[in-house]
């Protein structure tokens, strides 16, 4: 299973004020925005790491400029087109 969401969010918060930061910190400083960490939601739960990574990549690609993350795996055009055929019942599916 993946790491606890609360642990990951706790790690992001102090990174926003540090002088050296990750993608989220750099984005927030450049864009002058603030992440809504309290509004974070889980988009899916899967035991298999590969399945979680595919969902992550599809979500990041679908959100485009509304997401500052980088996918852990690369999806090709055919994979994205295939995933879009599913009715996932969320705003992630265009």
UniProtKB/TrEMBL annotation:
Q: What is this protein called?
A: Tick transposon
Question: Which top-rank group of organisms is this from?
Answer: Eukaryota
